Amino acid sequence: MTIIDLISIIILMLLLAYSVIKKYIDEKNGIDNSKTESKIDEFCNKHYKKIWIVFIIILFFTVVYKFGEIPTYLGCDEAGMAYDAYCLSEYGTDRYMNQYPLYLTNFGQGQSSLCAYLAVIFIKILGPNVIAYRMPMLLVYIVSVIASYLMVSKFKNKKFALLFTFLIITCPWNIFNTRMALDCNLYLGMFMIALYFMTRAEKTYQFFIAGIFVGLNLYTYCLAWITMPIFLAVWIVYMLYIKRTNWKQIIVMGIPIAILALPLIYFLLLNYGIVKQTDIGIFSLPVLDTFRAEQISPLNIFKTGLESLKVIFMSEGTIYLLYVPLFIIGFILSFKNVVQSIKEKKFDLTTVMVIAFVTLLIGLLFTRIPTANKANVLYFLILYFVAVAIIKICENSYLSKIIMLITICGLFINFTWNYFKVDGVSGDNWYEDRYLYSLTEEIEANEKYANMEKYIISYKAAPYIYVMLGTRMSPQEYMETQEIVDYGNNRTEIAKIGDYNFIYKSNEFDEVVNNKENGIFIISNRYENEIKELQEQGYTRQDYGYYAVMTKEE
Predict the structure, then answer these.
(1) Contact between 182 and 134 (Cβ < 8 Å)
(2) How far is CA 341 from the centre of its chain?
(3) Is residue 183 pLDDT above 60, yes or no?
(4) Bridge partners (DSSP) listed for residue 551
(5) Mean per-residue pLDDT for 191-205?
(6) Three-state SS letters, 372-439
(7) Contact between residue 334 and residue 353 where contact means Cβ atoms under 8 Å apart
(8) Is residue 430 predicted with pLDDT exceeding 60?
(9) Pairing status of strand 453-457 against strand 519-524
(10) Domain limits of the chain?
């Protein structure tokens, strides 16, 4: 817990005490402060467009400013998706020569495909670069912010909708999430877009559109295959019970869901060995090296549930610590809406949000949640309940509203300052791979190194994916030139692609140094002994980010 977190928690405790005492005194003295909320509502209704201008400015500085540059690092899964997207845009296959795969192989354990196919569109427009690779996240995020605002504005009020939107665009996780092209992170925005269409659907064609977006969620992240059916089952029961929909509309919505789900069901059968055919028309489905379905079990709720909850709510860079108690308060308060909605058989957005959060959380806990990325779909929903709590705590008090706003702004400014000055631009060499990607691009553009063998020693796993992305080699060249070394204990590594060689052990380095005549070494600066050895043999060192480029004049 940082100092600013501690201060924010203390402020919340004081506001809670002030709220209770003020309410008691006002009721005792017969004071009616409802006019305060009426004035706030009037202000929001009158000036919401001006407030949205402020939101747009915040969005620009948090997710548009230096988009593609920050974060400076490039994760290996992100690079894998980007290279597959490039291959799809140029050759119509992934890197393993699978034609239009509906699920990507990536490093053998699989990766959902929607992010890659969206990236193809931007690669065609902007060319193959980091901005194009990450643009799907930005697009879906902005659309989901607008959809969330419109949904809450319609079923609640503009005050609530504006507060909810403010919490979304100032939340650390949403800023992190939008700037990195991880396939799983797309689930968050796509779910909120689907929820928007589901809540607004009244006519038959609107349910069909909602079904399309629900089905697309299945291509954002494999955990949607578990969480979405649970959510849909409870949502359908609720909607039928309150008579907001009927079976005909449910069936219409189910048609596109079924059409989009069937290939993935076939994919599961394929990887369980029940079916053998890997092509469906022009599309293909891979047989994965490692099928992780065995990691999913309802028993994990009891085995790793508490650990997963800690990751979801307490991980650095997800939500402010202040929001944890606010979420608990807001979630408890929301059950009043649930009971009333069911009792009166009337539609209530808060009830839908409770259903969404509970069902999605249960589905997610079927597997261990080691990182927040796995639970990304929850973070808009969590903020909804934070908004419920803030409105209740600050009810009928200008002072409370001002103090809460200042507190959240302080947390937001502190986070963004650290992110753009520290966290997003450095990583203690852990994220050295962005440099390997850009360095490869420069080497490829230099005719001097055109026919030279390159030897790479990288600190991070899968360095070859950055080289593939930087060279933009064809999937055919990748498949034809790759050499794989088996180290035993189920560990294999790619040792060579094209004229790039990858060194993983010191004895391999010694062998290369003693036997090669011409080449260039690209070495992580964590390996100072290897760098010094090359310098002793007459190599010249040139630093490039976290790497040393070692060359020798013949």
Answers:
(1) no
(2) 32
(3) yes
(4) 540
(5) 96
(6) HHHHHHHHHHHHHHHHHHHHHHCCCCHHHHHHHHHHHHHHHHHHHHHHHHHHCCCCCCCCCHHHHHHH
(7) yes
(8) no
(9) parallel
(10) 3-423, 433-551
3-state secondary structure 3-62: HHHHHHHHHHHHHHHHHHHHHHHHHHHCCCCHHHHHHHHHHHHHHHHHHHHHHHHHHHHH
Q: Among candidates 217, 153, 166, which has minimal Cα distance to 383?
A: 166
For residue 511, the 8-state DSSP code is: H
456-481 confidence digits (pLDDT tens): 988 877 889 999 999 999 999 999 99
Q: What are the φ/ψ torsions at residue 529 (nearest 5 degrees)?
A: -65, -45
> Which regions of 151-305 does DSSP assign to beta strands (E)?
279-280, 283-284
Token code pair at residue 169: 């665009």
d(CA 315, CA 325): 15
Supply the pLDDT for residue 432: 56
Q: Collapse the DSSP code of 277 into the 3-class scheme (helix H, G, I; strand E, B; otherwise coil) and give the result.
A: coil
* Predicted local distance difference test score (pLDDT) of residue 462: 86
pLDDT of residue 49 exceeding 70, the answer is yes
CA 462 – CA 521 distance, rounded (Å): 17
Tokens 């799809």 found at:
88
According to the model, what pLDDT value does residue 429 have?
Answer: 46
Compute the residue count for the chain: 554
Residue in the block written with tokens 């709220």: 19
